[in-house]
Amino acid sequence: MKKDLQEFAINEDHALFILLKKRxxxxxxxxxxxYHRYLYAIALKYLKNTQMAEDAxxxxxxxxxxxxxxxxxxxxxxxxxxxxTKNYILNQIRDRKxxxxxxxINAQIDIPGQEDxxxxxxxxxxxxxxxxxxxxxxPQKKEICLRKLETTExxxxxxxKMGISxxxxxxxxxESIKMLRLYFDQIKIK
Length: 190
Hints:
Blueprint: H1 2-21, H2 25-47, H3 50-67, H4 77-95, H5 97-107, H6 114-135, H7 139-150, H8 155-162, H9 166-189
Helix pairs in contact: 1-2, 2-3, 2-4, 3-4, 6-9, 7-9, 8-9
């Protein structure tokens, strides 16, 4: 099963690379979506700076777009992108060693691992999904949920600001939670 998945990924990458050689923007976008997190995590691990890691990923994808037509060999796309990223990082370490040394010193305080970066990205994605769900709520429920999420207001303060009773705030919030649970259950099914 695992071998089948690896073969599928290699075949998918091969098809995307062939389309990329034909300057297909959708294939480039698909490659970016598939590998940008992976490359960012690698760059961040070694450069210890989010801006430098973002620059590394951008550099790699610009170079991929610019040089694809010059590549005349069969490649493993993931390995190729990894090698491009590694070479860029090594050049940055060579050219900017003082700055990167400082990044390492600063990173000793709190070292985010690859799992932390991916978790932070997943948390952001989950938060975006939550806000999409809140947007779908009826107006009063939506306002109550947004106040609960974005402020430290108590139920009493929300009730006073909205001109409703505290019990109405509580019941709307409980109903909103039920509606959001259904919303997330529907997302899981899709």
